[in-house]
Amino acid sequence: MATQWRDDGFRYGAVTRGLHWVMALLLAWQFAGMAVKEIVGKAPITAFWVGTHKGIGVILLTLIVVRALWGLYNMKTRPAHGGGFWGLAAKLGHLALYALILIVPALALLRQYGSGKPLDVLGVRLIEGGWAEVPWMTAPANAAHGLLAWLLLAAIAGHILMVLVHRFIWKDDTVGRMVG
Questions:
Q1: Alpha-carbon distance 130 to 165, whole Å?
Q2: Contact in structure between 134 and 114 (CB atoms under 8 Å)
Q3: pLDDT tens digits, residue range 33-83?
């Protein structure tokens, strides 16, 4: 059986599913690291985990842009959310997830640039740094990055809850669209 790369109106294709699950794993890594930081405090495990946070954030920002572009490319062939209240709720819920997954790392990247400090991701220098801090760039992320990230976690929890509702209460094939 040939791999279905594109969405077809009934199921999501391999690219959509791959992006979804890679992002899910990276988001789990990010939130687990922040949970370890909150619970354990300063420790070697925290330093390791938090040390990956910026790099993973840049990768997530890149992936959400790719996912958005892929979604636009597949817009006419994506499985429908359905109609009525629950269809609208699904559309708004996904829109909120995508917006938060874009905004949270974008704010952090703005803060990083405004800090005047360099940024290396996977050994590649993305921001050279070497200038004085630019407060109007650092202030938005200082104020909102963490709060919006925890709001994103709540949205992800709602997303997972609805997956369970579809699977065990409504017993429809919604989960099968993303699992493959």
A1: 51
A2: yes
A3: 999 999 999 999 999 989 999 999 999 999 999 999 999 999 999 988 889
Integer Cα distance of 158 and 123 in angstroms: 36
126-148 pLDDT per residue, tens:
999 999 999 999 999 999 999 99
Q: Is 72 helix (H, G, I), strand (E, B) or coil?
A: helix
Nearest residue to 110 (alpha-carbon basis) of 101, 99, 119: 119
Which amino acid is located at 94 in the chain? H
Q: Is the per-residue pLDDT at 100 higher than 90?
A: yes
Taking the CA atoms of residue 68, residue 129, residue 30 and residue 140 in that order, the dihedral angle to the nearest 10 degrees is: -70
Where helices occur in 41-173 by DSSP H, the ranges are 44-51, 53-73, 84-115, 135-164
For residue 120, report the phi and psi dihedrals to the nearest 5 degrees. Answer: -115, 135
DSSP string over 35-65: HHHHHH-SSHHHHHHHHTHHHHHHHHHHHHH
Determine the residue type at 122: L
Q: Which long-range contacts (CB under 8 A, 24 or more apart) does 113-117 make?
A: 113/137, 114/138
- Distance between CA atoms of residues 100 and 106, nearest Å: 10
* pLDDT exceeds cutoff 90 at 174: no
